[in-house]
Amino acid sequence: MRTLLHDARLSLRSRRLKRRLRAGQLEELLQGNETLKSRLDELEAELSEIRADSRRVAELRILVEERLSRSAATPLQTPRPE
Questions:
Q1: What is the pLDDT of residues 14-62, one digit of tens each?
Q2: Where are the alpha helices (DSSP H) in the chain?
Q3: How many CB atoms lie within 10 A of CB 11?
Q4: Residues contacting residue 70 through CB under 8 Å, at least 6 positions apart
Q5: Which residues contact 78 (CB under 8 A, 6 or more apart)?
């Protein structure tokens, strides 16, 4: 009888420890998930900035090419100022 009671207590302790372990693992996973979400938000913000910079660079490249083509024009091709 003592052995059965002792075994039951050990089994109960074992189940409690397993639940605590699973709860700890779950908490750890949730924290890791939040960290990853935060990092993803940061990377998405950086990507938006990079895309905006890229668009601006493309716009500037077009302006430079237009001005270069105007400056390379022969005097007959140079448009008159208005």
A1: 888 888 888 888 889 999 999 999 999 999 999 999 999 999 999 999 9
A2: 2-71
A3: 10
A4: 78, 79
A5: 70
- pTM as predicted: 0.54
Token pair 């979400």: residue: 37
How far apart are alpha carbons 41 and 35 in whole angstroms?
Answer: 10
Distance CA 62, CA 78 (A): 19
* Rounded distance between C-alpha atoms, residue 50 and residue 55, angstroms: 9
**What is the identity of the amino acid at 30?**
L
Q: Provide the token pair at 8.
A: 């039951």
